[in-house]
Amino acid sequence: MQRRLQSLRMDGYATQCHALYVGAKLVYRVTIQTAIAPNATWVAGVSKAKLEAFRVQLARLVEAMHTDPTEPWSADGHIERLLEHVLDIATKLHATTFAASTDDDRDLVERFVFEVLSAYTLLTSLEVADVSASALANQVLHFYVILREFLMIPDDVTSARNRLAIAVMNLTDIEPPTALGGGCSICLEPWQHANVPALATVQLPCGHVYHEECVIEWIRQNANCPVCRAVIGPVP
Q1: Cα–Cα distance between 115 and 224 in angstroms, integer?
Q2: 1 near 7, Cβ under 8 Å?
Q3: What's the burial of 211, exposed, middle or buried (CB within 10 Å: 0-12/13-18/19+)?
Q4: What global pTM score does this model have?
Q5: What average pLDDT is seen over the chain?
Q6: Which of 78, 160, 172, 175 lies closest to 127 in space, CA to CA?
Q7: pLDDT tens-digit profile of 77-86?
Q8: Which of 10, 31, 39, 73 is most deeply packed, by most CB within 10 A?
Q9: pLDDT of the residue at 131
Q10: What's the pLDDT score for residue 236?
Q11: pLDDT, tens digit, for every residue of 160-180?
């Protein structure tokens, strides 16, 4: 499961930053593109006022986190470190940009948005078991909402990511069915070549079996079984 969840954190994002003036105010427009949903391209605006509001929201969450240190949000403290990291880079960017638009500033804003995207992607691919129940219902959800609103992520991208996460978590590890012959219906390769270690193999809820790597790439575009078209989700 951890290996598959790791694959969720590797969604490719492409970003491009432009600067413009709205009256006397400098605003950066970062175009974001991802392959997780059809035609998934949108623009996240970053102004000094918006960045300051973002930083204040994060600072309040950090303060709440330290107010009750007896109950960690996550088993390994990963969410706590992620929150503090995003606050740190937001604070640094707020202090160093928006005086004037330069190529260096545009690069800084673009890298910042990419890091916030990475934080969002990581936060939405954690196992629920690693997060305390109260934190999941309160602080972690609040952190997620703050990131999503700042990045202006469209509903269709969020829905596509949720479908992908549900599909990935409903795959079951099995041994390659070499005794049955045949092979993966996606790549058309046999389950195992002579003298070569077998690739990781998974079974879908519908019963069909594929190479894990093949089906992960498939469900990034389509959360249905390639053979029977059944939805890759919990069995009713």
Answers
A1: 31
A2: no
A3: buried
A4: 0.78
A5: 84
A6: 78
A7: 788 889 999 9
A8: 73
A9: 57
A10: 47
A11: 888 777 888 888 999 888 766
- The CATH number corresponding to 1-11+47-154 among 1.20.120, 1.10.287, 2.60.40, 1.10.3470 equals 1.20.120
Residue 127 confidence (pLDDT): 64
Sheet holding 41-47, edge to edge: 13-22, 25-34, 41-47
DSSP secondary structure letters along the chain:
-HHHHHHHTT--EEEEEEEEEETTEEEEEEEEEETTSTT-EEEEEEEHHHHHHHHHHHHHHHHHHHH-TTS-SBTTSHHHHHHHHHHHHHHHHHHHSSSS--HHHHHHHHHHHHHHHHHHHHHTTS-GGGB-HHHHHTHHHHHHHHHHHHHT--HHHHHHHHHHHHHHHT-EEE---GGG--B-TTT--BS--TTSPPPPEEE-TTS-EEEHHHHHHHHTT--B-TTT--BSS---
